# Entry
Amino acid sequence: MNMQISFLGRTLPTPLILASGIWGTTVSLLTRAAQSSCGAVTAKSCGPAPRAGHVNPSCIEWGGGLINAIGLANPGAEAEVALLAKAKRELTPLGVPLIASIFAGTYAEFGQVAATVAEAEPDFLEVNISCPNVGSEFGEPFAGNPESAALVTQQVKRALRPTNIPVIIKLAPNVPSIARIARAVVEAGADALCVINTMPGMVIDLESGQPILANR
Ligand SMILES: Cc1cc2nc3c(=O)[nH]c(=O)nc-3n(C[C@H](O)[C@H](O)[C@H](O)COP(=O)(O)O)c2cc1C
# Structure
C-alpha cells in the first residue's frame, strides 16, 4: 500500500513521525525507527551545553502510557552535530528525512544552537519551546505566550537564512489558547507546527504519599 505523504516539499514514505525523545538519542535507534516504517525521525532535543538531566526515576510506564521528567539530558549542540551528521548518512539511502531538535534558555542562544546544528544538514529543524520539565531553571516555557514564541521563531529563522532548512515549532498543550500561539509563530515564519509536547502530570505512590518521578 502506498502511504507516502508530502511534507514541506519532501516525500515521506509514511505519515508516521518518530517524536523527539529517548529513541532519538543514538544513530542506531533513529535508523531502526526508519527501518520500522517511520516516515521521518526526530532526534532528542539538544541545547547550548551538555546536560545530565534529572536523576532517576525520570520516566515510568504507569499503565496508561509514559510519564517523564527527563530534564533535557543531552550532550550539547557541538557533540550533537556529529550524531546528526552520521544519522543523516544512514537515513538518506532509506529515504527517511532527519529532524533535528533544539532548545535553549535565551532568544540569542536559540539562534546560536540552530546555526550549530545546521552544520549537520538535517532535513528539518524542530524547535522545542515547550519542555515542561525544567521550569525551575528556565521559568515559563517560551511556548507559554505568543510574543516569546514568535521571537524564538524569528531568531531561528534568521539563523537558518543561509540554509534551506525548514523550521518546525513545537507547541505546549497547557496554555490558555494554543491557536493564538500557533498563529503568532506562523506569522513569525514557522514552516510547520509540532503539536504537542508532554502533557504535565504526576503519579503518586499511595504507600509513601510521594510522587514517583524524582523531579517534583
Ligand atoms: C521520555 C520522553 C522524552 C522526551 N524528550 C523530548 C525532547 O527531548 N524534546 C521534545 O521536544 N519532546 C520530548 N518529549 C515529548 C514527546 O516528543 C511528545 O511530544 C510527547 O510525549 C507527547 O506525545 P505523546 O502524547 O504521543 O506521548 C519526550 C517524551 C518522553 C516520553
About this structure: The first helix runs from residue 27 to 35. The two ends are 46 Å apart (CA to CA). The mean pLDDT is 94. Residues 19-22, 44-45, 59, 66, 68, 70, 101, 128, 170, 197-198 surround flavin mononucleotide (CB under 6 Å).
